[in-house]
Structures are given as C-alpha cells and as structure tokens.
Design a protein that fits this description.
- This protein is an all-alpha fold.
- It contains 3 helices and no strands.
- The chain has one domain (3-54).
- The chain has helices at residues 3-11, 16-28, 33-54.
C-alpha cells in the first residue's frame, strides 16, 4: 500500500471497491508480515466505521 493510498484511506476518500482492490493487491505482494497485518487491521476498522456511519 502506498503512502498516498494510506492517506486517502484514513481520510475516507476511497470507495469500498478501491479498498478491496488494495486488499487483493496486498495479498499478491510479499511484504513484512507485521506491516501487512497492521494495514489489514486498519482497513477492516475503517470499513466497519463506514458501515456504522451508513446505518
């Protein structure tokens, strides 16, 4: 995940489709496991936040 993508994600500027695309791309790239887990947890938390805000 690039820094720009991370900033957009934190600011809520990404659509769910873009977020799931990033998750899929992350699974294809070898990365430090701890960094990948941290990013995945952040993404899941933001998706949950979006769902709660929508309800």
């Amino acid at each position: 995940m690039t820094n720009a993508q991370m900033q957009d994600l934190k600011a809520g500027r990404l659509t769910n489709r873009e977020i799931y695309g990033i998750l899929e791309g992350m699974s294809l790239k070898p990365k430090l496991r701890s960094q990948a887990l941290m990013e995945e947890q952040l993404i899941k938390a933001l998706l949950t936040e979006k769902r709660k805000a929508r309800d």
